[in-house]
Amino acid sequence: MTQGTFSVRGKRVTVVGAARSGVAAAELLVRRGASVTLTDVREQIDEASQLQEAGVRIELGGHSEATLTAADLIVLSPGVPSRQPAIDAARRAGIPIIGELELASRWLRGKVVAITGTKGKSTTTTLTGRMLEAGGHRVLVGGNIGQALSAQVDQSTDDTIHVVEASSFQLESVDTFKPWIAVLLNFSPDHLDRHATVEEYAEAKSRIFLKQTPSDWAVLNADDIEVLSLAESTAARRVLFSMEGDPAAEFVLSGGYIVRRTRTGIDSLVPLSSVKLLGRHLLADVLAAAAVSTLAGAAADAMTRAVENFTGLEHALEPVAEIGGVQFVNDSKATNIEAARRAIESFGEGLVVVMGGRFKGGDFGELAGPLAARRATVVAMGEARPLIAAALGSACAVYEAADMAAAVRTAFACASPGRTVVLAPACASFDMFRDYADRGRVFKQQVRRLAEEWTTMREQ
Q1: Using CA of residue 426, residue 431, residue 437, residue 443, what is the dihedral sign?
Q2: Are 233 and 209 a contacting pair, CB within 8 Å?
Q3: Would you say 396 and 372 are in contact if contact means Cβ atoms under 8 Å apart?
Q4: For residue 260, which of 11, 21, 212, 373 sits 20 to 30 Å off, Cα-Cα?
């Protein structure tokens, strides 16, 4: 479906969920001539006044079946599960139900680069945007990070490249969404508190390729067999990247560079010495961003400038402080088992890991080997404390903490000078925090408070 054929003018549209994406969708729909109702389970939302001024009708305290079944179209915010009674009733009534990403994409101009994966989406999306900007392209970065895609529609032009982070929650409801370049970074079980099975989660991820044609590109991690399997049916041209030097991969590491293998030789793109990120797995994100940016027309020197000026994202292996010779690192974005494993493998012996929160599924036992190999210590917090202790207690020492302040202090007491404490929760944050960013900020606040106390004690 193209911009010229999709219209909501004069239609009754209900947006379900008043988080960032839902608010942006409601405002966009009003501007496009729809009669819009926004519903949310909360009793109050901060944006109520601005939405009402824009002409949006607001229903709070739950989703009314009568409101949903009276709509001509329903738009779901990504955080809203698609299976609940009022939405099911609307579905049975034959009312079209789409997600915010799908809605916005129907009005975009220019080209779309969509990036998904279990881990590394935000880093790869941000760095791809910066590489393309350095290369002289007009770029808008958003989706699951930054601005919702609906908030970018009015800025979209024929020469815009939209670099979009796409989550499984967004992709599960796409229908016409068609990226020019679709990227699948990696795949491991996640969000099993939302998706009924791993297979359902995988199917959502694979929908990124659903509408691609032979004129499009699928950029795939050759080192991840699940990625290759999920992309088997894509009609797009496949381009592989590999940290391990897979013979079939076009983009690899060689001679201290990210390089592109061509039929005529090897093109050096980005020197590894320009990468300023902790963790080998983040280098894979740089490799993927370089592959995408090369396909999109960015020159090697532009990509290198972008990498040189990129020190990483907040809450993604973010150095926080050094206290008494102990380095503290914030990886609050490590919200699943695989992401926590990658964080753990980024550090050496004597590591202390702050872990826990609301369990999302998976097997904490998969972390036992990497923890034991590093003679690591775990400080467990949140609802998952007993699960962590049961799964990891035989592999390493596990201490429990009631809150973040206690966790930081317990971790510091367990760490030796020259070692690292990393927040790598392997869990969602919602038992104790608003989101992973709130959790990361609280971790940093407690580390800084500890640093002040340590300095004061040393000066006395």
Answers
A1: negative
A2: yes
A3: yes
A4: 212
Q: Cβ of 263: how many Cβ atoms within 10 Å? A: 4
Kindly list the domain boundaries of the chain, sorted by start residue. 12-95, 102-308, 318-459
Domain 318-459: assigned CATH number: 3.90.190.20
> What is the reported pTM?
0.86
Per-residue pLDDT 10s for the chain (460 aa) are 444 589 999 999 999 999 999 999 999 999 999 999 999 999 999 899 999 999 999 999 999 999 999 999 999 999 888 888 999 999 999 999 999 999 999 999 999 999 999 889 999 999 999 999 999 999 999 999 989 999 999 999 999 999 999 999 899 989 999 999 999 999 986 665 666 688 998 999 999 999 999 999 999 999 999 999 999 999 999 999 999 999 999 999 999 999 999 999 999 999 999 999 888 888 999 999 999 999 999 999 999 999 999 999 899 999 999 999 999 999 999 999 989 999 999 999 999 999 999 998 889 999 999 999 999 999 999 999 999 999 999 999 999 999 999 999 999 999 999 999 999 999 999 899 989 999 999 999 999 999 999 988 777 6
CATH of domain 12-95: 3.40.50.720
Task: Classify 102-308 by CATH class.
Answer: alpha beta
With b meaning 16 or more CB within 10 Å and e meaning fewer, what string describes 57-70? Answer: bbeeeebeeebbbe
